[in-house]
Structure formats: structure tokens, C-alpha cells
Amino acid sequence: MTDRLEGREKVTGAARYAYEYPLDDPAYAAAVQSTIAKGEITEVHADAALRIPGVLAVLSCENAPHLHEVPDAELALFQSRTVSYRGQFVAMVVAETLDIAREAARHVRVDYVSEPFDARLSADDPRLYKPDTVNPVFPADTEQGDPEGAFNGSAVRVDATYTTPAEHNNPMEPHTTAARWNDDGTLTLYDSTQGSSPTQEIVAQVFGLDRTHVRVISPHVGGGFGSKGTPRPNVVLAAMAAGAVGRPVKFAVPRQQMFATTGYRTPTIQRFRLGADADGTLNSIIHEVFEQSSTLTEFAEQTATPTRVVYQAANRRTSHRLARLDVPTPSWMRAPGETPGMFALESAMDELAFAAGVDPVELRIRNDTDREPESGLPFSSRNLVACLREGADRFGWEHRDAAPGGHWEGRKLVGMGVAASTYPAYMRPNKATARADEDGTFTVRIAAADIGTGARTALTLIAAEALKADADRVTVEIGDSSLPEATVAGGSAGTASWGTAVVRACESLRGKMNGSVPPGGLEASADTAAELDARDEYARHAFGAQFTEVEVDADTGEVRVRRMLGVFAAGRIINPKTARSQFIGGMTMGIGMALMEESVMDPRFGDYVNRDLAQYHVPACADVRDVDAAWVEESDPHLNPMGSKGIGEIGIVGAAASVANAVHHATGVRVRDLPITPARLLPLL
Amino acid sequence: MDSEVTPVHAEITLLVNGTEHRLRVDTRASLLDTLREDLGLTGSKKGCDHGQCGACTVLLDGRRANACLALAVAHDGAEVVTVEGLARDGRLSALQEAFIEQDGFQCGYCTPGQLCSATAVLDEAERGWPSAVTEDLRGDPVLDDDEIRERMSGNLCRCGAYTGIVKAVGEAARKTQAEEAKA
Ligand code: FES
Ligand code: FES
Hints:
The complex is a heterodimer.
Chain A: H1 7-12, E1 27-33, E2 39-45, H2 47-50, E3 55-60, E4 82-83, E5 89-95, H3 98-105, E6 109-114, E7 133-134, E8 138-139, E9 142-144, H4 147-152, E10 156-164, E11 176-181, E12 187-191, H5 196-206, E13 214-217, H6 233-245, E14 249-252, H7 255-261, E15 268-276, E16 282-294, E17 315-325, H8 338-356, H9 360-366, H10 384-395, E18 408-409, E19 412-424, E20 431-436, E21 442-445, H11 455-467, E22 474-477, H12 494-513, E23 522-527, H13 529-533, E24 541-553, E25 559-569, H14 576-595, E26 601-602, E27 607-608, E28 626-631, H15 655-667, H16 678-681
Parallel strand pairs in A: 1-14, 12-13, 16-17, 21-22, 25-28
Antiparallel strand pairs in A: 1-5, 2-4, 2-6, 3-5, 7-8, 9-17, 10-15, 11-12, 11-14, 15-16, 18-19, 19-24, 20-21, 20-23, 24-25, 26-27
Helix pairs in contact in A: 8-15, 11-12, 14-15
Chain B: H1 2-5, E1 9-16, E2 19-26, H2 31-38, E3 57-60, E4 63-66, E5 79-81, H3 94-101, H4 111-126, H5 145-151, H6 162-182
Parallel strand pairs in B: 1-5
Antiparallel strand pairs in B: 1-2, 3-4, 3-5
The complex binds FE2/S2 (inorganic) cluster (2 copies).
Pfam families (chain B): Fer2, Fer2_2
Protein name (chain B): 2Fe-2S iron-sulfur cluster binding domain-containing protein
InterPro entries (chain B): 2Fe-2S-bd, 2Fe-2S-bd_dom_sf, 2Fe-2S_ferredoxin-like_sf, 2Fe-2S_ferredoxin-type, 2Fe2S_fd_BS, Aldehyde_Oxdr_Iron-Sulfur, Beta-grasp_dom_sf
């Protein structure tokens, strides 16, 4: 139970985020967004802005420096006259102060020729196609047996379509970059990123620099939830601006502009067919997903992939179809794929439980499997059943009356729901160094990121254990691309991947030390690429079960979560204190997904209409009452030296279904379209 | 047009965390930008710049306020306490300690605002100010979990650290009350 190591800095305001580094005479950037969804820029009128005292430069497609092409076309800032979505950055102003820059941005006029566009996702769009792979490299479609035939021949059938809306990550710290070109031609970036090494590499490509000539510094990051996992246009904008005015430039994407330019979760339309025997044993699972990307970049979310993992069934099919629309580019948002996919699967399982007359917990236990259904690989460990049983026990599931609807407490309807969670235990190759000094202290270096996950603390505990030293003698340095190269904080793979490199570097150091440290100290390094290549083939996933009790106001349709408990099986938990916060944080975001989060596309403009925190609702303190997380002991020798699985995302997976299933139990109403707002629910009560 | 966009400046005085500052500010500048950019007090955060998240919460003349919604020029002579001013002589306040103990944050970006808000919550309860969930408007409000959740709902935390925040504020409230009872 170790306190967060940077806790003191964070509670005193001393922890610095990207915008907050003292820079010599900084200038400030403000961006201009396109007001059309598709078309060409004919002219950019900068003179009015340039006449304002304090304005240093206006940059747009008319005068921007040439950038090198990289796979993510979102980074080709001001490189063409083409507008690909409404809200795209089309110009910027750099000025002496933020107030001047913002004011001047309003005086930049952009003329366009507009073209017809389409920003509406539908399951019968003729432009839907099968992507080659879904994020990151999964097959788009899979099939085994005779899914249709088995479905048609099943005694109990569920055939339902679920939709999830676009959602925005909305980390509390906006996407921010402060950029400085140094006299030797190198570039320093203070950037709010989930990965200083990948950002370094991509920014170097964009500006045609040697990788070592870019340094990305990001010791503290105010959340990201995937949206800071890849460089966004803000980093290019700040660096370009700094080059243009020959001074350091700071740029934080205003909250309203984040909705178009920093990524979001794609909306999904998902049709599920489940066919089962009378006792609920699954014969057939068919999961068809329809989703969107922009015309700029193909981002195909892996929404159906959890369906390939969780339950047995001899006959099965999953598919993804993507429409490239005239919309902002979607990207990663906390458990991309698993989150919307498991909302649909776990809602459908709940429907099947009622159709078959089987208890929802029991139904899931009945369809457990000891091999990953589609690959046939054994699981390295799988304790879904233990999570279900333990959770049911702790939550008081046995007091639940099976019949849905009509559980009145005054004017409130009360109900309980359950859903399973799952998330892959990914690992990526990393490098680290470990150093021993004569005074008995150790320093471990790796370009890992702590975006609030507790990574700094967890890696320190991991290093201390490997060094057989007290944690207070160990310093772990992270958040800087000048440290040994590390992969992104994403895919819940951070601690497992970085931790392995840290352990190997520490082991190697101990081997060299042989009990003593010579004058000048000792250093050792590690690279885990070969180790990862040599791993045995297993299906590696974390599992969990989430239980929710809701009350529904029968007069207003308002749903409130009374209690929520997640029980997880995620290997060894490195630091219970920060781990609990990770699980609960994910579940809290899941409450938001279930009840309030929705980015509303206006197809007449091709843009999200709710674009601030007053209109895009995230859970507030009063929305989160009794939410708790627990875990079952799980020892898994096939993972990594720590025996850990990732925990940053699994908390949100299944959470929304758990809430929706509780709403059904309370009211008898099945809401298949998120979020479950009073406007949606009340007419059905 | 030029006349309307030429910056207008004004001289003001601010007493920030006990130190007096004489400043020349753009009359459009928010108190938040003034603290962060002019005074280098970057503890107060900007999450939305529109009064919707609470990350910028400071104590302005003793009461909590969103510094992004306050124009600096309108607060000439004001007394401001930011997160940097909550610890005394390097000693953390009971709230700051409780936030660490209860893990009332993850990324830490909302934390300065949460702490300033919570500092004011303790004070408001002490003065007997009711909230929307206070049942007995005559008695002194007791900071139970429902009261804390209601009073802290102006400060968003996207990391979802609310359960820890509520525990931390409760713990600090009990500690403060116990100390007062002793005194
Ligand atoms: S920054 Fe002031 S309320 Fe959000
Ligand atoms: S701790 Fe990250 S937003 Fe609250």
C-alpha cells in the first residue's frame, strides 16, 4: 500500500505539466478551425490579424513550411488546401500573449469552396467496407463452424442491435505542447503525451530531423485515456509556430477545439445473435460491427475482438465494417474495442439469461472455457468464474429477485445487474538502465509515462524488489525521451512491458555488482525484445465481473448508481493503493458511458454539437457513490517477471453493461442505445 | 477595427499567498492566466477556461472561485490563495495529507482545484452554510459523504478519483473538528 511517490508535488502544485515550464520569452499560439466539413480553401485573409499589435505570425496552407509525410495524415498540418472535416485546424496565430493570439484568431478569415459531405454513420451505408485489419493488427472478420445454421436451430435465441455513441476522452489537462528550437537546430518539446519515445520518433519524421535531435519531456501528464497515445496536431502546431517566430511557443488546445482535433471513440452499431440450448449453453455467437473513421486516416476499432475471447460456442462469427465519413478522426479511448464491444456482448448475454430463465451469473459460468475459443490456445490464467462467484457473494446477489421490473422502493425502481470484463495482457519490447552508486542508492531510467496510472510508483516497487533494496533508495526516472526508449502508456501494457525491462536491467546490475559497488558506480542495461519473441504461445487476458445496483426515479427517468463492485483477476497487483484507483477510475468512466456521455453529431454540419464540459457530461462527484474494486489472487507464470496483467482499462470494460442490465432488472425496460438518459428511458417506463 | 483590438492595460495589486504583487495586466486577462503566466504560479490549472471543470479553483477573498471566470482587472486589491499557499512552512494541510493518504488523485491535474474547493468546503460547513442536500437548515451541517459529494461536485475529475476525494475530505473534516474541539 504505497502512496503515490509524486503525491507531495501534486498536492502542493509543484508538479509541472506541459504548459508550465519556465521558458525564455515565450509566445502563444491560437488555432483557427474550418467552418466547413469538406471542400477546398480558396484564400486565407491574414491581414486583419497581422495588424493587431502583438501578433507575430499567421500560418496556414498559404505559407506553412513543408512537412514530411507520415502515416497519420492528421499531422500534415496546413500542408494542403483540402478540408477533410469541420473543426480541422486550418490556420494559427502566434502572438505575444494568449489574449492577443485568441483575439487575432477571430480576425483570420478563411474562404472556402464547399462540397457535399456525409457525416452520418448507418449500417446500410453503401460505402461500408471490410478493413484489412482492425486496431492494431487483428483480422477484421473471423468465422468457425456454421454460425447461422446453429443460431437458427437453437432453442433460445437473442437477436438484437445495440448502439454506442461517439465519446470524447476529455482528459482534464488539454492536449498541450510547449516547443523550443535550440541554437544547434534541435527541438525540445514539453508535451502532454502518453509516450515520449514514440512522440520523439514521429515528430522527428514530420520535421525531417534525426531522432536524437528531438527531445520530448513529460514527467507529469494530466490524463490521456488514449487520446494522448499518439501525437495530435497540437505538437506539430507548436513546433511549427516556434520555428516561424524564432521563440518558444506554447499551445494548449482549448477544450472546445479538443472535440474535433484530439480523437474520440467511434460510434458503433452492433448486431448480436446468440443461439443457445434451453439451459443457456451457447451454440452460436454472431457479432457484426459497423463503425466510422475519417477520410484522412483509417482507424478501425477492434470492437468485436472480446467476443472472440470470452465465451465458448462451437459456431461463431465476428465482423467489422468501416465507413470513411467526412468527420474528425476517431482514435483510442480507454479500452478501444473492448469497451463498446463488451457493452453489446454483455447486454446480449443478459437478454439471453432472461430468455432462457437462467441466472445471469450462472449463465456466464456455464459458458466459461479453458481455451481461447477461436485460437484454441490455452489461457495463461483465467479466473472469470472466481470473479463472478466472489463478486456475487460480496454484493449480495442471492437476495436478487430474478424477475425483471417492479422492484419498487417508494417512487424508485431498484435493480441489480452483472457483466463480465476482459482485457488482453499485452507486452511490448522495452529498454531500461539501472545504476548503482557508492552511497547505496540506485537509479533506474526508462522513458515510461505516468499519466496518472501510478507507473512511477509501481516501477519503483518493481525495481526495489529486483534489486533487493529498500524502495526509498531507488529513484526511477521516467517521462523523457532522452531516457532509454520505451513504448506508449497504452493497451494496459505499460507496467508489464516497462517493468520487465526494469527487472532485467536490475538483475543484470546485481549480477555485475557481486555485492559491492566500485568507485564511480556501476550501470547495466536491458532490452526485452528477444525475451518477448521467445515467449510460449498462450492466450493472455485479464478478466473481471462487475455488479451494479441502480435506482430509477419513476417520475423523471433519472438513473442513479447506488452501489457498484468490480472484482478482477489481473495477475499480481503490484501496488494495491494505486491499483484500486485505476480500477475504480475505469468503472467511474463506465458510469459516464452508461448514463451520460454522448457526443452528438449534427449531420447538417458534420461536427459534434456538444463541445465543452457543460454539454458533454462526465461523472461528477455526486454521481459516484459506493463504487469499489477488489481482486482475486492470481498467480500466472506465463506473463512476465512480475506476474502482472494490465489494469488501466479493464475497469471500464463491462461497466456500462452492468449498469444497463441493472436498469433492466429494476424497470423491465431494455435500453440498447447508450447513454441511458432520462429522455431515452422515461417514455419507456 | 484596430481600436477595438488594441490591448488596454491596467495596474492592479494582488495579494497572493501572502505576497503583494503590483501588476500591469491586459484588461482581458483572466485571474487564472495572470497567476499562471505573469506570476509563475502554475499550480492552478486550466481545464476548460469556461467555469465548467473547477481545475482553476482558488480562494478569492476567502471564498472559492473559478479563476478562469474572474478578470484580473476586476479584482484589484484582492487576496488570493492558490494551491501553492495551502501548506504552511512546508507543512501540508490536513487536506493535502489526506489526499495523499486516500489516493484522492491520479494524474493530479484536477487536484489543486479539488484542494482549494475542499478547503472552502470545510470553512463553509464550519460557518453553517447549507448545501442542496442539507436537510435541517437550522442546525450545523455535518460533512457526511452525501454532503461532501454535493459540495465537491463543481470539481470534475476525469481520472475518477472521487471515492478517494470524498474519503480524504471526510477525514480532514473530522481531524479539523477534533482539533477545534481540543482547542
Ligand atoms: S478552468 Fe476554470 S472552471 Fe475549468
Ligand atoms: S486526478 Fe486526474 S483529473 Fe482528477
